Each structure stands twice: as C-alpha cells, then as structure tokens.
Amino acid sequence: MKVAIVMGSKSDYPVVARAENILKDFGVEIETRVISAHRTPGIAETFAKNAIQNGIEVIIAAAGKAAHLGGVLAAYTPIPVIGLPIKSSTLDGLDSLLSIVQMPKGIPVATVAIDGAENAGLLAVQILSLKYPELQEKMIAYKAKMEADIIAIDAEFTEGA
Ligand code: RP5
Q1: Protein residue closest via CA to atom 10 of ligand 1
Q2: Contact 69, 8 (CB under 8 A)
Q3: Measured from the CB, is residue 15 less than 6 Å from ligand 1?
Q4: Entry pTM
Q5: Per-residue pLDDT for 160 more than 80?
Q6: Which of 23, 56, 61, 91 pairs with 135 at a CA distance of 20 to 30 A?
Q7: Burial, 135: exposed, middle or buried (Cβ in 10 Å; 0-12, 13-18, 19+)?
C-alpha cells in the first residue's frame, strides 16, 4: 500500500511532515516529492500519468497560494487525489483552500482544512482501508483511543465536582 505526498515547494514540508507521520503510524509506504504545477509542469504530468504503474494508490497534493497542484495531478490520473491547502501567503491560506476545493465537475479533489495535514493522512488511510482490512482495524483502534483520551481529559475536569 503506497501513498504519494506531493508538495508544490520545499517550504510546504513543515506541514506535510504531519501527514507523513500519520501514514507512518499506520504503516503505509510513502513517496514524498516536490513537484510544482507551475514551475515543473512537465514533471507533474509525467508523475501523475505513471502513478498507477508506480504502485501509488492515493495522492496527497499539498500546495499554497494559487494551489493548482492537486487539480493538475487529478487531471492526469484516475486514482483519488486529496488536496492539502497550505497557509503560505498573505491571504492566510484561503487562496489555497478555494483554489483546491473549487474544482470543475468531472475532476474531483477531496479537500481538507487549511494546514489540515493529519486529516489528509487519515483520509488517505480510510480510502486504502477499503482494500486493506488491517488498515480498517487500525482506524477503528485510532478512533477508540481518541475517544478514550477525551473521556480521560473530561474526567480531569469533572472529578471532585
Ligand atoms: C506554492 O507556492 C507552494 O506550494 C508553496 O506553498 C507556495 C510558495 O512556494 P515558495 O515560494 O516558498 O517556493 O506553489
């Protein structure tokens, strides 16, 4: 099972690293690349066209500003693309979010929150879990732990009350 994380610039990496960490926690193989829809468009096209034969099953595309990376990759491949809008400009990432989410019909890009790297990783895991039952088991355990952690925090506030 393999997820590609493509970012438009090395400057996106501090956010992207959080998606990598989620995927590593779930034991998913990662291929991380720096490819720009604008600065290296030919490489973006080749990467997306070869994604399936390179074993990639889901793509996370992280980009900021006029964030066209996810849309361009999705144009060239039938596999799911998750857009991760990066807060990288004077517009606080709203530019990135709208650039990614407002895809024309026919070329969907699933979009997470601005800098929502953990959810990009988790959504990729959920897509893969349709094919890999062991990932679904891990996702169920992840949610159960999250619930238990919050119940424990709640108890700290309510004990003695
Ligand atoms: C986008 O422009 C990148 O994804 C990055 O978020 C933003 C700024 O890139 P740099 O100027 O830091 O390389 O293409």
Answers
A1: 9
A2: yes
A3: no
A4: 0.96
A5: no
A6: 61
A7: buried
Q: What's the rounded mean pLDDT across residues 115-140?
A: 98
Contact 137, 37 (CB under 8 A): no
Instruction: Report the C-alpha gap between 131 and 137 in whole angstroms.
Output: 12
Sequence ranges of the domains in the chain: 2-128, 133-161
115 lines ligand 1 (CB under 6 A): no
Whether CATH 3.40.50.1970 fits 2-128: yes
What tens digit of pLDDT does each residue of 34-67 get?
A: 999 999 999 999 999 999 999 999 999 999 999 9
Whether 85 is in the pocket of ligand 1, judged by its Cβ within 6 Å, is no
Q: Cβ of 38: how many Cβ atoms within 10 Å?
A: 13
- Residue 61 near residue 35, CB atoms below 8 Å: no
Q: Under a CB-based contact definition with an 8 Å cutoff, are residues 70 and 63 in contact?
A: yes
Give yes or no for a contact between 74 and 82, defined as CB atoms under 8 angstroms apart: no
